[in-house]
Amino acid sequence: MSVFVLLLGFPSVGKLTIARELGSLISAKIVDNHWFNNPILRLLDEEGTGPLPKGIWEYTGRVRQAVLDAIAAYSDPSANFIFTHAGVAGDERSTRTYQQFIDAARQRAAVFVPVRLLCAEEELARRVSSPARRDHLKTTEVETSRSRSRQAVVLDIPHQHALTLDVTFMSPSESAAAIRDHIARCSA
Predict the structure, then answer these.
(1) pLDDT tier for residue 16 given thresholds of 50, 70 and 90
(2) Alpha-helix runs per DSSP H in the chain
(3) Could you tell me which residues are beta bridge partners of residue 84?
């Protein structure tokens, strides 16, 4: 049986790092949210300092849908996938994105496992300031990270296989192992 894992969390929580660790544990293909975003964002302000145009995320949503459609149509039916998404509760676009993943999992008859990754504000601020993030068009704004931590909540849509994991003091390998164990329980 195929598994679709969706790692949800604020920027710098470690979604991609944990995905890489988890991918080796469950033999899964990783599809990072920047695969959808960067082809579009690279066409804009390379410095990443200007405001993004209001409708830009609709284009990244189209890229995401094309990738999910290709997975549903052409990937091996037993293949596992790990996706990342910086979903925010109360945000309509985040909810639509989440639904895209659920629909793709349903099309493939895959077990859908949403995992909310939480992290303390100070640790997120420390992680987000890494200069290597800018090379991948990832945010490095510490104050934006702090503000997001205070004012927003990671997307939390009830699901029978949902897991919430605080990764503040967990290593990526510990986090991946906890998710792997949860997936095993969901797939049993």
Answers:
(1) very high
(2) 15-26, 33-41, 56-74, 92-107, 121-128, 132-135, 142-151, 172-187
(3) 7
Q: Which of 100, 12, 17, 117 is CA-nearest to residue 60? A: 100
Edge to edge, the sheet with strand 111-118 lists 28-31, 80-85, 3-8, 111-118, 163-166
Report the C-alpha gap between 119 and 166 in whole angstroms.
6
Q: Alpha-carbon distance 146 to 128, whole Å?
A: 10
pLDDT tens track for 90-119: 999 999 999 999 999 999 999 999 999 999
CA distance 101 to 97: 7
Query: CA 151, CA 131: separation in Å to the nearest integer?
Result: 25
* Local structure of 186: helix, strand or coil: helix
Say which residue, 164 or 126, is predicted with more confidence: 164
pLDDT in tens, 129-163: 666 656 555 666 756 656 676 788 899 999 999 99
Q: Which pTM does this prediction carry?
A: 0.88
**Residue found under tokens 């099309």:** 107
138 token code pair: 């990832």
